[in-house]
Batch of 3 targets.
Target 1
Amino acid sequence: NAGVTQTPKFQVLKTGQSMTLQCAQDMNHEYMSWYRQDPGMGLRLIHYSVGAGITDQGEVPNGYNVSRSTTEDFPLRLLSAAPSQTSVYFCASRSGDARQYFGPGTRLTVL
Amino acid sequence: AQSVAQPEDQVNVAEGNPLTVKCTYSVSGNPYLFWYVQYPNRGLQFLLKYITGDNLVKGSYGFEAEFNKSQTSFHLKKPSALVSDSALYFCAVTSFNKFYFGSGTKLNVKP
């Protein structure tokens, strides 16, 4: 049982490049979410999904896209990276008792 | 607007002494409240939650938290701190499928 997995662990991009952060869970959780963690600001919700085919915006959705074609996968896309998107990104899934399980994170630097 | 406040960036305590990490919240409706812990370069781990019932909630590693509706607080406590408790602690609330995290409190437990 792997839980929540994220790839890559580290990524460096140039301004304007695009990329996809991958997230997968093997716990059959309907709810999945993406956060960014910045110093002194805690975690902020980017996008979330309550099930396959359903996504919605969180606190800081601008510059990010998501889709949910399967229960297991919830990728996060940066269409045109900006230095302000330098952050640590966490994916999470939520069990029926509202407890969230977090992945190990992706450290992204945009130059 | 929904929000979570952790008024202390850092809490220092000697090993064996009791510890308290403070959290207050502002959210509409009846919130679900959580505490998570983060060790360096790791994802967040669930400690405990309050949904309803007894105001004193017990969680992992000997931690507990007290829900106070009138003061809209959910302080994390432990009767006797360990050096291994040193980490970053986050309070969180969920409302209408969105999670809101505090900015985090760094707990330093000194031998």
Target 2
Amino acid sequence: NAGVTQTPKFRVLKTGQSMTLLCAQDMNHEYMYWYRQDPGMGLRLIHYSVGEGTTAKGEVPDGYNVSRLKKQNFLLGLESAAPSQTSVYFCASRVRVNTEAFFGQGTRLTVV
Amino acid sequence: GQQVMQIPQYQHVQEGEDFTTYCNSSTTLSNIQWYKQRPGGHPVFLIQLVKSGEVKKQKRLTFQFGEAKKNSSLHITATQTTDVGTYFCAVRSNDYKLSFGAGTTVTVRA
């Protein structure tokens, strides 16, 4: 059981480039979340999904898009990266609301 | 924005001392969760509190949910170097969102 796996672990982008972060979970969880973590800001929710084919905006969705075509995968896209998107990104999943969330190892993204 | 305020933001503790970190909300919470993130790591679930006034212990960690279900605390006794990290509280802000506080970052002086 791998749990929650994020790909890639590190990435450097130039301003204006695009990329997709992949989150994969093998626990058959319904709910999946994308967060960004910046110093002193805690974990801020970008987008989330309550099941296959569904997505919803979190607290800081601007500049990001997501898709959940398969239950086990939740993709986070940056269409035109900006330096303000330099951050550590975490994916999390949980089986249902009010249960513990399991986190991936994180993706450290730098936009130059 | 974030649904809960955590204080203090930073906690510098002498090894062996006790400390407490707090999580406060302006609204009544259905439940609250606590997570720990070690330096360079990812958040890991510690506990969930559901009932008014609930107290749960995990070895040297004591978690409490306020009577009004608007605040929670984490108290660590006899702090050790293994307690270093950032402690987050997390709440359900609508049916499905899971929102985190800004965290309390703990450093320990040996």
Target 3
Amino acid sequence: QVQLVQSGAEVKKPGASVKVSCKASGYTFTSYGISWVRQAPGQGLEWMGWISAYNGNTNYAQKLQGRVTMTTDTSTSTAYMELRSLRSDDTAVYYCARILAGYSSGRFDPWGQGTLVTVSS
Amino acid sequence: DIQMTQSPSSLSASVGDRVTITCRASQSISSYLNWYQQKPGKAPKLLIYAASSLQSGVPSRFSGSGSGTDFTLTISSLQPEDFATYYCQQSYSVYTFGQGTKLEIK
């Protein structure tokens, strides 16, 4: 079955960077994009950006431009999201999701299980 | 950016009730509207896409309607497993989510 499995929880200090992985299985990785969404504690969902697993093209949310980088490793069917210059308000659960039917006009299914990133001094 | 506003923010209902959640876009998004269900501690799950198409495996008691700026998610007869938070998402201009509607047991 189609599955996305994310890396484990992280604790980082303000100013540090974090890199979260998302390993795909059960489908042809390069045929779809991967989107990243985060959810601060008790809050709603915030779209962060997407990456094409076919050619590496990216589209980032304006709010995160300059701090976020999304990459893929097609040899291992894994997507990565790196966030730099971490602040306390970056504390959140980070999700990856497969994009169906168009990178910027599609829908997300399935989702990874989520990775909690805690930013604290 | 396109803003998505859901109402109500929270809702109390009983098993067997018919429930409707509304989502309004700040500009026309045609039918580029998806609905997700999220249970505590779990990832969101796709329910409805393109405003009214039921995702495979989702029970038929869930339905979606609307186009342009106004959309609804309807649950025809609430089941115990439906108590969760629901989010709309526009996919007309990249992606934006609504703030969520928490559906609680009355």
